[in-house]
Amino acid sequence: MIGKSDAWFVRDVAPALNNNNNNNNNNNNMYEKGDVTVLWNQAVHTEREVTANRSDIIIKNQKEKTCTLIDMAIPVDRNVVQNEAGKKLKYKSLCIEIQRMWNLKLRSYQ
Q1: Is the pTM of this model over 0.90?
Q2: Nearest CA-CA partner of 47 in 98, 107, 108, 103
């Protein structure tokens, strides 16, 4: 879950998702600025087969050597914990593959 310490996403990344005017790529599902790449609605191609290979948003920061996976869901109140645990399990193999392929520390938010 996104907390107060992650307000940078709303301030810095979210506007970029809505405005691709500064994007140097023709790909509408990717934004790059400096060492940061933001991907959304895009599958990650891995050497090993991963069934859940499409997180909602992936943020790669080459300077800090981190990768953040964000998967959004709006569960019913009584299903929040169950939904969060299911998402962590669902994307576990993708997390392992991203760490191996891109050599980045991984953070995951569901």
Answers
A1: no
A2: 98
